[in-house]
Specification:
The complex is a heterodimer of chains A (about 120) and B (about 110). By secondary structure, chain A is mainly beta. Chain A has no helices and eleven strands. In chain A, about 40% of the residues are buried. Classes of the chains: A mainly beta (about 120), B mainly beta (about 110).
């Protein structure tokens, strides 16, 4: 069965960077892209970006351009999201999710990771 | 890119039908047929219930249906059940080649 397993929670200082990984299993990894979505405490869902695992092409939300980097490792079936210049309002649960259709860019996501809490404090 | 607009909360009694609206612009919902809806129980991962405006993934109840008119998409849940109580989010592809979510709607089953 399809599973997306994320790395554990992180506590970071303001200005630092954080890496969150997402290991996929149960399907052909290169066929589907991966998105990252976050939810700050008491807030809604926010889209950070997308990576095409097939060709490594990335699309980032304007709010995060220059601060976020997404990479895919087809040898370990893992996608990693790095967010830099952390601020206190980056404190959130970060989710990875698989694209539904397997296109170069998917706007719908069917299998989600369990979420990773990133806490940023000074 | 501003978030899509959803009502903060809706409620209904078991067996009733409710509709959640999601308003965007001509640069997202109004232009593309790539609207999705997610059901999110707090502490769990979101669940895709509608994609491409009105399509249901395999295994999703046909009590959930989606539609779109101009720049407003809608999710209708018929035959409300207690387990439908959750947060619901719409999302849309945008002309910036990004995805934007709505602010979320809390559904209470009375």
């Amino acid at each position: 069965q399809v599973q997306m397993v994320q790395s554990g929670g992180e506590v970071k200082k303001t200005g630092a960077s954080v890496k969150v990984s997402c290991k996929a299993s149960g399907y052909t990894f290169r066929t589907y892209g991966i998105t990252w979505v976050r939810q700050a405490p008491g807030q809604g869902l926010e889209w950070l970006g997308w990576i095409s695992v097939y060709n490594g092409k990335t699309y980032y939300a304007q709010n995060f351009k220059g601060r976020v980097t997404m990479t895919a490792d087809t040898t370990t079936n893992t996608v990693t999201m790095e967010l830099g210049s952390l601020r206190s309002d980056d404190t959130a649960v970060y989710f990875c999710a698989r694209g539904y259709s397997g296109y170069d860019f998917d706007a719908s996501y069917d299998y989600w990771g369990q979420g990773t809490l990133v806490t940023v404090s000074s | 890119q501003s978030a899509l607009t959803q009502p903060a909360s809706v409620s209904g009694s078991p067996g009733q039908a409710i509709t959640i609206a999601c308003t965007g612009t001509s640069g997202d919902i109004g232009f593309y047929k790539y609207v999705s809806w997610y059901q999110h129980h707090p502490g769990k991962a979101p669940k895709l219930i509608i994609y491409d405006v009105d399509s249901r993934p395999s295994g999703v109840s046909n009590r959930f249906s989606g539609s779109k008119s101009d720049s407003t998409a809608s999710l209708t849940i018929s035959g409300l059940q207690s387990e439908d109580e959750a947060d619901y989010y719409c999302s849309s592809y945008t002309r910036m080649s990004t995805v934007v979510f709505g602010g979320g709607t809390k559904l209470t089953v009375l």
